[in-house]
Amino acid sequence: MTELQVPLIQDAINSLQAGQNVLLSGDVYTARDAAHARLYSMIQNSEPLPLNLAGIGIYYAGPCPDMPGRVINSCGPTTSSRMNAYAPLLYDLGVKFVIGKGPVSKEVLSAIERNGAVYFAAVGGAGALIASRITEAVDIAFPDLGPEAIRRLTFDRVPLIVAADRHGHCVYDNH
């Protein structure tokens, strides 16, 4: 299994192949449908963003409400295709990877290839396992969105699969 540290260097992204298993450590940001829509609107209106997108990774997740004594509660992946309308622009603005589950559109795959990025798949139903590998969770933006707010999570060896690599190869049969 390949161990990766965020921020991902381009050589590491270039070496990844669809279907490869990885362990990811470092900071990632949660964002689901509502946060994506808000970011997209802010970009379209030339408003300042609450975080710099250059080089970051976005985890398509909306963690369950926090439980006392835990860094975070269950934190499983959301279906990636729900972000198809927003993902190409975010890749174009510097996002280097996303984490979700399931296939994505051809436009998203093209954006991944065009920007030298990568799409990781997390196993659905593994929210408790993933939460056990998160060592810090910090609110970043849009607290009014509740579980869909943007948070910075610190991963410690979270197991993922390279779903789409920067060379245009994808594990899903959608192209």
Verbal overview:
The chain has one domain: fumarase, CATH 3.20.130.10. It has five helices and seven strands. It has helices at 10-15, 33-44, 87-92, 106-114, 127-132, and strands at 2-5, 21-30, 57-59, 97-100, 118-121, 134-141, 150-164. Helix 2 (33-44) links the parallel strand 2 (21-30) and strand 3. The mean pLDDT is 94.
In short:
By secondary structure, this protein is α/β, with parallel strands linked by helices. 22% of the residues lie in helices and 27% in strands. The chain has a single domain, classed as Fe-S hydro-lyase, tartrate dehydratase beta-type, catalytic domain (fumarase, Alpha-Beta Barrel).
What's the helix and strand layout?
Layout: E1 2-5, H1 10-15, E2 21-30, H2 33-44, E3 57-59, H3 87-92, E4 97-100, H4 106-114, E5 118-121, H5 127-132, E6 134-141, E7 150-164
Parallel strand pairs: 1-2, 2-3, 3-4, 4-5
Antiparallel strand pairs: 2-7, 5-7, 6-7
